[in-house]
């Protein structure tokens, strides 16, 4: 701890130096200066923690000196001494955050106590500074990861890993760096990517998914408050925050934003998307609203590339309390409980037969609900509902069933066929790999492969990437180049013929692809491998 005494009166400086017990205060050095110029020089050479300064000095005042100290040594505490009770000096000293202001002649015991308090203040600030520097990397990391934290909050909330209560509208999201006001409402908008217009490699697909999220943030959130997150269900969800005063304006704008976004995705991102707009809710109601929108998306089997408002959905035209829970039925079939589901179908139809309310309209609702359950399950698993229902082994119905017997016969046959589709004994991926190996010379497309295994092309891409670890496009390239590499290294077959044998009619393009995989063109690779001809 070092102290500087500044006063144009030599005897005043000497009196303070001699009267104060510096050792008891923990002061290691006491410097003196008789004007601002000398004081500045000492500051430039030494680290001064406490400055005791007279206010009235020739040329430059103590106030001017404090202004310089605040700028160049901001951690220094200053105690002012003055012989005049001038309010202007006192006011300016307070404005400059001086530590204390004392009248001359000062009592040394009082001054010593003031110095002791100033030293405590310096030590406290020093400790806070050290702690601040210690935690600085964590503050920087917090700022960098703040977005990730907020995304994680929404992800966990929507997947019910965390549960919001009615009074959590502000406090719970604040823990994750999200600012919500007490009266804020949340408007969820699901963005569903329905189809990519061209085949994507693994990297391209990841980039395009990122582009979908970024563009939805720019066009759907725009200048409003909100965030875009990726949910565990694989859909992009835009969540807009707004106050009651902002609600009408946001409702007027969100539809136009969604339509503009749908058009932009089609034009610039080569994909078709639909947007599903929910109703404004409080934080604790968001998960239920999100599930309602998910159900709305799952049940939309025919309308594509459109804007859908939850508020404009018509109610079920065939309400009947006796209709079964088709969602539970879908779970049974999804988990391989074929016989149990067949029995539930029979039991429910027997119960409905004794219910007087069950007429033609109720049977139509039953048929539509059952068929919708089958479509939903097949879509969820990536199977082609169209191909299944066109299969000659599935009983065809030119019109919905008109009797319970017709419904039972058709329903049981359909359950059994779907069960076979879902639980094929032979894995899809080995079949695909065998097909690819037999057709490498051909122009293999994702649609060709999807048709071969009766799967939805988009689902097939996700399944293949999950099980193989790369996209179909990358796998085709690696397989062709693997065969080419073996032929180049172990045979004298001309490289141009090797290229044609694996489906490349353009030799230049073949060389480019080979170099991408093996970091050497075919001729260089042959020389390195020792084969004679090229």
Summarize the structure.
This protein is α/β, with parallel strands linked by helices and 534 residues long.
Rg computed from alpha carbons, rounded to a whole number of angstroms:
39 Å
Number of strands: 10
Backbone shape = elongated
- The percentage helix is 55-70%
Low-confidence stretches: none
Strand content: 5-15%
Strands of the widest sheet, in order across it, are: 2-1-3-4-5
Label the structural class.
alpha/beta
What composes the largest sheet? Answer: 5 strands, parallel
- Rounded mean pLDDT is 81
How many helical elements? 22
Oligomer kind: single chain
N-to-C terminal Cα separation, in Å? Answer: 82 Å
Please tell me about this protein's structure.
- It is a single chain.
- The protein has 534 residues and is α/β, with parallel strands linked by helices.
- The chain is 57% helix and 11% strand.
- The strands form two sheets. Strands 2-1-3-4-5 form a five-stranded parallel beta sheet, sandwiched between helices. It has a five-stranded mixed beta sheet with strand order 7-8-6-9-10, with helices on both faces.
- The mean pLDDT is 81.
- It has helices at residues 10-19, 22-25, 36-45, 62-72, 87-95, 108-158, 171-174, 202-221, 247-268, 286-298, 326-334, 338-353, 360-381, 385-390, 404-422, 428-438, 446-453, 457-468, 472-490, 495-501, 507-518, 522-529, and strands at residues 2-6, 29-33, 50-54, 77-82, 100-103, 185-196, 225-230, 236-242, 271-277, 307-309.
From the structure above, extract its key features:
10 strands, 5-stranded mixed sheet, single chain, 534 residues, alpha/beta, 5-stranded parallel sheet, 22 helices
């Amino acid at each position: 701890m070092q102290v500087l005494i500044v006063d144009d009166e030599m005897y005043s400086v000497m009196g303070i130096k001699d009267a104060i017990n510096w050792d008891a205060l923990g002061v290691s050095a006491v410097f003196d200066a008789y004007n601002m110029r000398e004081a500045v020089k000492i500051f430039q050479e030494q680290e001064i923690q406490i400055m005791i300064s007279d206010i009235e000095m020739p040329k430059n005042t103590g106030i001017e000196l404090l202004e310089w100290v605040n700028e160049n040594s901001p951690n220094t505490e200053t105690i002012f001494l003055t012989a005049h009770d001038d309010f202007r000096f006192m006011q300016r000293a307070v404005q400059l955050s001086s530590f204390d202001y004392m009248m001359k002649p000062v009592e040394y015991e009082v001054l010593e106590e003031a110095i002791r308090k100033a030293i405590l203040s310096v030590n406290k600030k020093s400790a806070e500074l050290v702690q601040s520097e210690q935690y600085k990397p964590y503050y920087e990391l917090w700022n960098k990861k703040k977005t990730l934290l907020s995304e994680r909050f929404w992800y966990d909330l929507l997947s019910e890993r965390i549960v919001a209560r009615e009074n959590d509208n502000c406090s719970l999201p604040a823990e994750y760096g999200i600012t919500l006001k007490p009266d804020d409402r949340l408007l969820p908008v699901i963005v569903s990517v329905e189809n990519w217009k061209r085949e994507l490699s693994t990297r391209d697909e990841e980039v395009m998914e990122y582009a979908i999220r970024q563009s939805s943030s720019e066009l759907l959130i725009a200048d409003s408050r909100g965030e875009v997150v990726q949910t565990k269900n694989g859909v992009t969800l835009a969540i807009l925050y707004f106050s009651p005063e902002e609600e009408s304006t946001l409702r007027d704008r969100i539809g136009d934003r969604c339509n503009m976004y749908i058009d932009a995705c089609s034009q610039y991102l080569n994909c078709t998307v639909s947007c599903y707009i929910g109703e404004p809710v409080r934080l604790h109601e968001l998960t239920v609203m999100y599930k309602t929108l998910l159900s709305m998306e799952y049940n939309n089997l025919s309308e594509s590339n459109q804007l859908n408002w939850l508020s404009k959905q018509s109610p079920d035209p065939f309400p009947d309390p006796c209709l079964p829970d088709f969602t539970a039925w879908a779970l049974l079939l999804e988990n391989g409980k074929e016989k149990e589901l067949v029995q539930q179908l029979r039991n429910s139809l027997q119960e409905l037969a004794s219910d007087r309310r069950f007429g033609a309209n109720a049977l139509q609702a039953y048929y539509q609900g059952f068929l919708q359950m089958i479509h939903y399950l097949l879509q969820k698993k990536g199977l082609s509902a169209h191909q299944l229902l066109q299969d000659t082994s599935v009983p065809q119905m030119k019109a919905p069933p008109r009797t319970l017997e017709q419904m039972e016969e058709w329903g049981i046959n359909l359950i059994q066929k779907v069960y076979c589709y879902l639980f094929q004994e032979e894995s899809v991926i080995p079949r695909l790999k065998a097909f690819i190996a037999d057709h490498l010379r051909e122009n293999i497309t994702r649609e060709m492969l999807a048709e071969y295994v009766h799967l939805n092309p988009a689902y097939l891409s996700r399944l293949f990437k999950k099980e193989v670890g790369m996209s179909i496009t990358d796998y085709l390239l690696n397989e062709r180049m693997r065969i080419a590499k073996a032929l180049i290294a172990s045979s004298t077959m001309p490289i141009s013929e090797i290229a044609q044998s694996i489906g490349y009619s353009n030799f230049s393009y073949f060389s480019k692809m080979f170099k991408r995989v093996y970091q050497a063109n075919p001729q260089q690779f042959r020389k390195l491998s020792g084969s004679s001809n090229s």
